[in-house]
Write a structure and sequence with these properties.
The complex is a heterodimer of chains A (415) and B (301). Chain A is α+β, with helices and mostly antiparallel strands and 415 residues long. Chain A is 19% helix and 36% strand. Classes of the chains: A alpha+beta (415), B alpha/beta (301).
Chain lengths: 415, 301
């Protein structure tokens, strides 16, 4: 079955937990025992409504403080499709969690409280959706019941967001506006009887219709080799299968390819998946590939089609989201992980900090602190095979790791 | 001529990618194998990740001595077919030498005792990556779990200080003495697992299908009376019922459900229409709201 990964961000006040609870409830994904547990806990705490955040805030500390600290993954499905929601906290101090949750998302839901309209947090959601190049974005104008289902209020918000989108450099984004009341269920899974002026679809119907495949970018094919399979058995004596996942397009028997960084040319001889052989492997498949020629290929090498080579470089210009308490500083050294490839990285320049509310940037800062997004230049210890993030998401991102703590401290987007 | 086109389903492709990263990034991985449906699914995915080579790591079973006999028999059969190494470590050994104390009474379970045996085995063999079949949809503390989850010397999970996992880049760098728990089917749901077992025609232990069993009822749950390890009061009457097990842990903490799903097709239908969650039949999760989180902090699977 198709799986659609969705990111949502917002604070409790926007009704995010209520929306997720409503989706679970209306798709009958909340089982009786879980629902009973939520009812009991809500009663214990003296709430007169069901607090669905109790279903998603999985850590003791989160329930004690009544806040979402970490990304939660929520699963539900309809007869047509399975969904994974990465539920992320929306405040500025959780920017890194928002980036983490949204990094694997194919679509995103931005919640707006109809009473408050576009607020600072909305800008940040928008900024991160654009940074991550998320194509399908739903603007959920929530709490319509509290503004008397006013079309005028809805249109004001819609116009503001459209203006914001017109200023964005990312032009392929598909915006879908849905007025709703998550609390009462209007336009979530069933069409609202209170907003006859809205001709569009319900949220669930829209999400069901999104083509999971179309949300995957189709660009130039990248096949980073994870490991080489050499069975050394009698039956497969000379078998050398290059195992990896295909990104950006399809590969086919007979395709002329180049092995990078050695620049050796060869041709695809066979494509294996488990005990079967195939002629074409589609974008996103984890397969094993053999080549006609006996070339030297190892982990971190990349197979690409002739005339579709990525940039081979020892220097990167990138936008980076910082995720560690210890700030990033110029001249510091980190491990860099780009796809399945590793190298050493030295920060040679920190040129600016981008403001996530679209209000500009701070030039020549001395350091980049936790949750800040900046523009940096990096020198590498070896050549990496990269694309710009805008052209090829999977081959245009990297993470930095602090060699002292082994923690992942930043995520970068190559310019 | 029809072209043979492979398009691997996203969840399967993701799991295979994770297995290959484990083998590339770690020196001594091991697959924690319980004989349950999730670990059986893991074995199939591992086969697919490395075929035509054999699975390049051993399987390890932490045997509580309270496993269903059907599961243990199935374990031995699958290991023989695959030709992989099986390591078994027994909770009973730690009970015998007094390192852990067995619970007693009507809710007694060896579930908690597994942790000590697991940590001993990790140290004994020097495993740096333990692959497990936990899924985020099972339980809300597990929903916060990473795919590569770092544990310290004591096997502890530092849930408030987890590494961010962005895109599909997996950071497996650890210090000596640490190890990583790896969860390749993190993003699968219970229904995904059952549908996969159906699609792949994977063999599973017979207790997952409806069968007649001597049972008794306590706290609204159905317990197996066929085995001596499940504590039973004398006034709890034994009745033969048509049941199956939806999750297979220890006999002492896994309740059965009434079912007439005698084959995989019926099981999938039953799961699809079920209104009770999978772990609803696990008494070990009902001890408190934070039961799973506490066990995980102490090094549980």
């Amino acid at each position: 079955m198709n799986v659609l990964k969705i990111a949502t961000a917002g604070s409790v006040d926007d009704g995010k937990s209520t929306l997720i609870g409503r989706l679970l409830y209306d798709t009958k994904s909340l089982t009786d025992d879980k629902l009973a547990a939520i009812e009991e806990k809500s009663r214990q705490r003296g709430f007169d409504y069901l607090d669905f955040s109790l279903a998603t805030d999985g850590l003791v500390a989160e329930r004690e403080q009544g806040i979402t600290i970490d990304v939660a993954h929520i699963y539900f499905s309809t007869r047509k499709k399975s969904f994974i929601i990465a539920d992320t906290p929306g405040h500025i101090e959780y920017t890194r969690n928002m980036v983490t949750g949204a990094s694997t998302a194919q679509a995103s839901i931005v919640l707006i409280d109809a009473r408050k309209g576009v607020v600072e947090q909305t800008y940040r959601h928008f900024f991160i959706n654009n940074l991550l190049r998320i194509k399908d974005v739903v603007i959920a104008v929530n709490k319509m019941d509290l503004v008397d289902f006013s079309e005028e209020k809805y249109n004001i918000i819609k116009r503001e967001i459209e203006y914001l989108a017109s200023k964005s450099e990312y032009k392929n984004q598909q915006l879908t506006f849905i007025p709703m009341s998550a609390l009462q269920g209007d336009n979530v899974a069933s069409k609202s009887e209170n907003m006859s002026w809205y001709a569009g679809e319900t949220l669930l119907h829209h999400l069901e219709k999104l083509d999971t495949e179309a949300t995957e970018e189709v660009t130039q094919v990248r096949f980073p080799v994870q490991t080489v399979i050499r069975p050394k058995t009698d039956e497969y004596h000379d078998f050398r299968g290059y195992a990896g996942k295909i990104y950006g397009g399809d590969l086919e028997i007979g395709d002329e390819i180049i092995v990078l960084p050695s620049q050796t040319k060869s041709t695809i001889k066979s494509i294996h998946f488990f005990d079967e052989e195939y002629e074409i492997a589609k974008n996103g498949s984890s397969v094993a590939i053999t080549l006609v020629d006996n070339v030297n290929v190892s982990r971190g090498d990349m197979l690409v089609k002739v005339a579709e080579e990525p940039t081979i470089t020892k220097q990167l210009d990138a936008t980076i989201c910082w995720m560690d308490k210890e700030p990033l500083q110029v001249l510091q050294k980190y491990h860099i992980k780009h796809g399945v490839n590793d190298a050493q990285a030295k920060i040679t320049q920190l040129s600016s900090i981008l403001k996530t509310d679209f209000s500009g940037k701070i030039e020549n800062p001395s350091e980049l602190a936790l949750n800040q997004i900046g523009v940096i230049q990096i020198k590498l210890s070896k050549y990496l095979l990269v694309d710009s993030f805008n052209q090829n998401k999977s081959n245009g991102a990297f993470i930095l790791i602090n060699p002292k703590t082994n923690n992942t401290v930043g995520v970068g987007f190559i310019q | 001529m029809n072209q043979r086109i492979i398009q691997v389903a996203a969840l399967e492709s993701e799991a295979i990618y994770i297995f290959r990263e484990v083998v590339a990034q770690f020196e001594k991985p091991v697959l924690l194998f319980s004989g349950g449906k999730d670990s059986i699914t893991l074995v199939r995915l591992a086969q697919k990740a490395f075929f035509p080579a054999k699975i390049p790591f051993p399987l390890m079973h932490i045997d509580t001595g309270h496993n269903f006999p059907e599961t243990v028999a199935f374990r031995d059969k699958i290991v023989k077919e695959l030709g992989v190494e099986l390591i078994v470590r027994n909770v009973q050994d730690n009970i015998d030498n007094g390192r852990v104390k067995e619970e007693s009474g009507r809710y007694a379970s060896r579930n908690m005792l597994q942790t000590e045996t697991l940590l001993d085995a990790i140290e004994e063999f020097g495993f740096d990556a333990c692959i497990g079949g936990a899924r985020r949809d099972e339980e809300k503390a597990r929903a916060k779990e990473r795919i590569f989850s770092v544990r310290d010397d004591f096997g502890q999970w530092d849930e408030k200080n987890q590494r961010p996992e962005v895109f599909d880049m997996l950071n497996g760098r650890i210090d000596l003495g640490q190890n990583v728990r790896v969860f390749p089917i993190s993003n699968w749901t219970e229904l995904d697992v059952w549908s996969y077992i159906q699609k792949e025609k994977i063999e599973i232990p017979s207790i997952y299908f409806a069968h007649k069993r001597k049972t008794f009822i306590r706290d609204g749950m159905i317990w197996s009376a066929a085995d001596a390890v499940v504590y039973r009061d004398e006034e709890e009457t034994v009745v033969e019922r048509m049941v199956r097990f939806r999750t297979v842990g220890d006999m002492s903490c896994t309740a059965a459900v009434l079912s007439d799903a005698v084959d995989i097709k019926k099981v999938v239908e039953e799961i699809r229409d079920s209104s009770i969650s999978e772990r609803g039949a696990r008494i070990d999760d009902k001890r408190s709201e934070a039961a799973m989180e506490k066990r995980k902090q102490q090094g549980y699977f």
